[in-house]
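Dear all,

This email documents one entry for the complex benchmark we are building for the journal club exercise. For each entry we list the sequence lines for every component of the assembly. Then comes the predicted three-dimensional structure of the complex as a token string, followed by one or two observations. Please use this as the template for your own entries, and keep the labels exactly as they appear.
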Amino acid sequence: MKKGIHHHQIGEGVDTYLLIKNAKRGIASNGKPFLTLHLSDKTGEIEAKLWGISPEDEATFLSGTVSHIQGEVQDFRGMRQLKIKAIRPTSSMDQVKPDDFLPSAPRNKDEMLEEVTQYIFDMQNAKIQRITRHLFKKHQKAFSVSPAATKNHHEFVSGLLYHVVSMLQLAKNISSLYPTLDKDLLYAGVILHDMAKVKELSGPMATQYTIEGKLLGHITIMVNEIEEAANELGIEGEEVLVLQHLVLSHHSKGEWGSPKPPLIREAEMLHMIDNIDAKMNMLDRTLDRVLPGEFSERVFAMDNRSFYKPTFHEKPIDL
Amino acid sequence: MKKGIHHHQIGEGVDTYLLIKNAKRGIASNGKPFLTLHLSDKTGEIEAKLWGISPEDEATFLSGTVSHIQGEVQDFRGMRQLKIKAIRPTSSMDQVKPDDFLPSAPRNKDEMLEEVTQYIFDMQNAKIQRITRHLFKKHQKAFSVSPAATKNHHEFVSGLLYHVVSMLQLAKNISSLYPTLDKDLLYAGVILHDMAKVKELSGPMATQYTIEGKLLGHITIMVNEIEEAANELGIEGEEVLVLQHLVLSHHSKGEWGSPKPPLIREAEMLHMIDNIDAKMNMLDRTLDRVLPGEFSERVFAMDNRSFYKPTFHEKPIDL
Amino acid sequence: MKKGIHHHQIGEGVDTYLLIKNAKRGIASNGKPFLTLHLSDKTGEIEAKLWGISPEDEATFLSGTVSHIQGEVQDFRGMRQLKIKAIRPTSSMDQVKPDDFLPSAPRNKDEMLEEVTQYIFDMQNAKIQRITRHLFKKHQKAFSVSPAATKNHHEFVSGLLYHVVSMLQLAKNISSLYPTLDKDLLYAGVILHDMAKVKELSGPMATQYTIEGKLLGHITIMVNEIEEAANELGIEGEEVLVLQHLVLSHHSKGEWGSPKPPLIREAEMLHMIDNIDAKMNMLDRTLDRVLPGEFSERVFAMDNRSFYKPTFHEKPIDL
Amino acid sequence: MKKGIHHHQIGEGVDTYLLIKNAKRGIASNGKPFLTLHLSDKTGEIEAKLWGISPEDEATFLSGTVSHIQGEVQDFRGMRQLKIKAIRPTSSMDQVKPDDFLPSAPRNKDEMLEEVTQYIFDMQNAKIQRITRHLFKKHQKAFSVSPAATKNHHEFVSGLLYHVVSMLQLAKNISSLYPTLDKDLLYAGVILHDMAKVKELSGPMATQYTIEGKLLGHITIMVNEIEEAANELGIEGEEVLVLQHLVLSHHSKGEWGSPKPPLIREAEMLHMIDNIDAKMNMLDRTLDRVLPGEFSERVFAMDNRSFYKPTFHEKPIDL
Amino acid sequence: MKKGIHHHQIGEGVDTYLLIKNAKRGIASNGKPFLTLHLSDKTGEIEAKLWGISPEDEATFLSGTVSHIQGEVQDFRGMRQLKIKAIRPTSSMDQVKPDDFLPSAPRNKDEMLEEVTQYIFDMQNAKIQRITRHLFKKHQKAFSVSPAATKNHHEFVSGLLYHVVSMLQLAKNISSLYPTLDKDLLYAGVILHDMAKVKELSGPMATQYTIEGKLLGHITIMVNEIEEAANELGIEGEEVLVLQHLVLSHHSKGEWGSPKPPLIREAEMLHMIDNIDAKMNMLDRTLDRVLPGEFSERVFAMDNRSFYKPTFHEKPIDL
Amino acid sequence: MKKGIHHHQIGEGVDTYLLIKNAKRGIASNGKPFLTLHLSDKTGEIEAKLWGISPEDEATFLSGTVSHIQGEVQDFRGMRQLKIKAIRPTSSMDQVKPDDFLPSAPRNKDEMLEEVTQYIFDMQNAKIQRITRHLFKKHQKAFSVSPAATKNHHEFVSGLLYHVVSMLQLAKNISSLYPTLDKDLLYAGVILHDMAKVKELSGPMATQYTIEGKLLGHITIMVNEIEEAANELGIEGEEVLVLQHLVLSHHSKGEWGSPKPPLIREAEMLHMIDNIDAKMNMLDRTLDRVLPGEFSERVFAMDNRSFYKPTFHEKPIDL
């Protein structure tokens, strides 16, 4: 079996099928049009330039299609880039389909949905349980495939669900150490905190922000949704307000998008758990390709740091 | 007619009825209990200390009661303070009632409500008009007496309504100069932007933040209310989203409580109009007592500046 | 009549005369020289690149000359750019002159000067009036054509005058609502606040900062000018100091160039009026080309925001 | 058994023995001397003032002695304070000793030392294990009783050890979820990160910063210690450098005392684990006394927030 | 000869004449009036409280008079304070006069003026020399006694002159090491940079900011003065502009009061020299009283740091 | 003798030998490989691009070799760049060697070492002297050729030594003016403060950060070295701690890399002296090429300012 695109080192040759996730036209400094392609397979993504294109090329290499590409991975200002030597579009003869080339979560979608369901099932507080279940059911379909972001972390099919399940496991482990934490509240906070990403983002393919996402954002949308759910279910009581506060405050600071900071124990913990899972996801993907004794690419979302892999750490697995 | 408490200079004697808006017990550095009183009449407020109190005093000088007080206005670290020389509680014989001693807006409440109604009546866009009217009617009673804040600006009975009417006049004048502004949107934004202060604050007497106010804040509450209003009225379309955005962004920056900055022309203008009216209210009240050629008390909410009244400006009116 | 360059959408063809406001030589990444051209007509400006130029081209396409250009408007990293397909210099045969291609204020210069004169005429305080009139007369010629800035807002012929007249109208409207404002002081502040831009900037064509502008700045230069004017006119009294303070503080904060923050009521209002007019000018020009339902280019001077035009707003006029 | 001082509500009477952890002389605003006492028992600490003291009082109520005190818990500017009604020194007749009144960790010291030893025993990497064990042995005595800070969190006898053990448990749980983490490195980082607090702080009674603590700080001292340990043990290799980096970067940012940010996966995780345990400790102690439906005192070290205990949460245990 | 007030340690008795530099009435927390006195002799200043004063006391212990005081130096929240045990006003019999009790520069005024004159005399550039000499002559009288500030550094009689002479010596030494520096420009910058303090401050006794000082500040006033001087002397040329820039930029950043940062080599050096002399003055005065092995009071103007005097450094001289 | 590369103006031709300090491969926007060369001679450095290279070119124009180059100095976005017209490698026939083309300090290395030795010889405090001498001897060889940085200032052979000697002269001059300064401490601080750059940087040719440099930094490494030196020499006493503090705090603020701010008089002065010498070095090199009446390139490390050379200043020397 072939090695995925994510695992190619600088200097390695590439001869494989890749999905064009996104194709954008530009004008080179010599005045000629070119395409910037975001190419992917299951394992990840890489950027490439297609220079000196004809109008036919533009009409052929469209977002959402699969091409066969030969080339070489190169270094461009500290980032990997694929230099294309040959490219051809695919036909039915090639027997490839776009969905097989989208990066997606490393776990099975239905298994993860089942796991979330179990956490909801175990809740003791009926109000929290009913609101969470209601919203989970309402958005389940989009929720099960949505990425958690357009870039930075969990930006793949089912990324949101994978992020939530990892956070639930963290929540379970940590609340076993700090018994004052209200597990129901914390689990509900985890399940709901990013749920409105299904409205803020346009879905798993060519993900971008919706108008509602830009003008309101997923935090405000979700607070609305909780209000509406409580109304529909006829639920009153402070649980509604507190769940809204958990969602509202999970980015922790005004300048990061939360109009109120966490003012409840579980709200503070929700923010810290979110942080851990996002950062571990970024670090794992960044250090995956780095050899022991070397520094990684810069990670913009982590203060632009370049991370080091100690010489006494394992080499990356050669797939 | 007697001069109001707001207009007393340092060194002037006081011999009048005053409402105890707020009484708070403390322990002096000699170990004895004392009361910190916030005293007010129609014209404003002043702080006073009642030293060496007995348990009976504590039971007598309660928040919400009117007392007769003799004393002198003094300077305490650059702020005015009333030194009490004699104080007695009032009885029915005194023929005074608390409501007559609360500072309130300089304009008639019903007249102002009428003026807002007229602005709504003039709107062209039916969706914007119906949502605004619906919410105005729903909260009209509390809206008509609520202060706009607990301190800093418009912190008096009907302060919120007075602030809104002043902003509507500004909006009308300014939109006559910049014809690209959508008047309907701007007026609706003005009327709705702070409306949820009726839920965030506890009302005009002894005003404080509610739990909902502290955990969600008036901006988020109001965005919820617009959603609910649109649902109840069966209104769809981008107007709902845009009105929510105007409310959401009116504090302009994340660190000031707006999770999204203004991204629509009228949202930017709403923020600037809000700013002008709040600052002019603070400046007028601050400079009111200042003599030409002197500097004012420091104004905390305006970067702690101390403002100067030029010698060629009018003296304050001696009431 | 032909549509101006400001109104061309991405993808539209161009076949017209344009002024080369500025031509700058650069070296492309293939090592060959090219020109970056800022092209304009009355309606606005667009950037273009002229690739692979010869020494003759360099000597031909000079700043301040008019060329005939064929090409297409394209998108370059979210900004509009004109792709030149054919360009030729003009001769006397073309009957075009540079001045007709400079963007300028939408109102008649003399009419605006007249309007400023009227505001000065109406002042009650003789000292303020005399200083303002003296400086207005002294700089009238340059003042009537100067742009208000090299970029961002009012960066066109008579932009400074247009900005001042708009602010005077705002000042008039707002001071009718807040009667504590001293109209004389506010009007004088508006007229004088940016007047030293005539010394800070090099004039309407190929505008750049002068050495004096870079080492002292228009604020300090203008404070000097007021001092000098008062000396020449033999005027003493606090009005001189207060006018200097208004100019000195109109950028509001040290990090924005004002060594003192506004400490006088009218100084605070001057800053807010300046802000409103600058932002409305930027917003109008930015949203002018945007279709309903779309986001604008990013506006650097407004925190790099991209603004939205609601779907229920008018389409831009098709000229 | 009597309720501890930590659990007294505002208004409750006190009649008990308390340790004077710290006694500081001051001059009241009436010119008379007084003592500010920090009083404690096993459960916590409270401040009190002793007014109008004589020279004998000063010589009697010394730091480190136990007194018998009657009084009442009162509110002073939002903080609890004990109003002393009667106080007498104790003699051998009272059969009390200071050590029994120092707040200390809720777990047995030797049990915790044993637990740390087990974590060291389980390490696979011999270099990491030897350095950690060496330093743990070297400082074990002071380490076992040192507080983790002078205030804010874990500021009690064995607070440092308790903090380290909690973090080890967190590290174990979290690394079971993220298998890319190097457990040896993470455990060693946890054990060593604050170890130099034994040199930075003066010990568990009347804790203050040493001169070395003020001029170098525990981070720099510990990096030195690791260097020295490696030299003494004759250990070479990148493990030494990486352990130093973990200690050096555990405050995460320059302005928080770390000259380098975390640049290794385990360094980032160490910082996050430290953060979780410190914050949970502060939250637990703060919310311990708060009744459901009320807000806590402000917590300075957590951005001065005041936290809310939901009405549907358990009441605090009445001891 | 008696030891000056600056050199008294905590706990030492005082029995001496002191000048009341400033007397301010306040109300104690027991409701009684008291005086806050700033007392000084040649060596420095100390604060004291006079409790429970009568109206006669108020009329007796006025600013600008000398009293005979017995008391003790005490610690008040980390600052020294004089506890007054006995105080009496002085009469002609005491043969003391206020001027002898004002702290002043450690060097002779006329000698220092002579030294400045010599630096001016040595200048090569006639334009710079003439402007500097003109302004030095014009303000010489006030300049020779003015403090350099109201607090923080050089806040004593002739403090400004002493600061300037020290900076001239620094300038001379440093420019001998960096020959690219223009000595004339640097010396002129030193002499002029703070000269307008003579207008910004009210003089050496009870120093406070003037209205002009508050509304314009010494930087802007001095730039005006240079302009005026050049006009009067008929001097043209870039020297005038450059001298204005040096004064304008000497605080280095907008938020510190300089609308332009240093853009000329000598402007940058001027800022650094100013910084060195101000900080050394603060450090010397702060560490003067500190014993080896101890930390100083906090120095607000130096980021609130508390400085350490090493044990191997000399003890302060016992006068 | 030929003019060095540092002194060529924009537009001047070049025909000379140059060292390739650094050659880096890139991909141009037309897809072809190119080399970015950093070329130097004794006087300085210039960047150049070699377009459209063959594999042979890559193998020929290696870092550390000398080539003969013809070309022209051009302006690229405000920075100088060398446009290469012809390039050929050198052979033994050319009689050139790389070392002769490295920019280096303007003073003789051995003379400077001698000067440092003299400062150490003159120290009075034996502990300070012995530690300083020990470390100076230990690192003398690398210390004598190391640059002080990879860019910004003193980035040439022996740059560190040159920087230290300049600072010693400053320290001597300044401490003659402020007699409270401990000369021994200050000199030792100067000599040691950046000494660990010999471990943080990889040496004078193709200078880059080492792993130790990235993970610990020269400040922490040097504090370790002082500890070790004191141990080896058997020196105890506060001098060791204080020297460590001087090194630790010399960047002054946490965000600039110092975990403790200067808390000792000499530490504050060390920071200021370091600042002066670094800035004068940057200014001299920047203004060296600037003609009177013009502004320099922007200096990134000095807040990105562009500096002005007055018209009345000398022209740069034409070598």
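Observations: Chain D touches chain E at residues 26-27, 29-31, 211, 214-215 (CB under 8 Å). The two ends of chain D are 8 Å apart (CA to CA).
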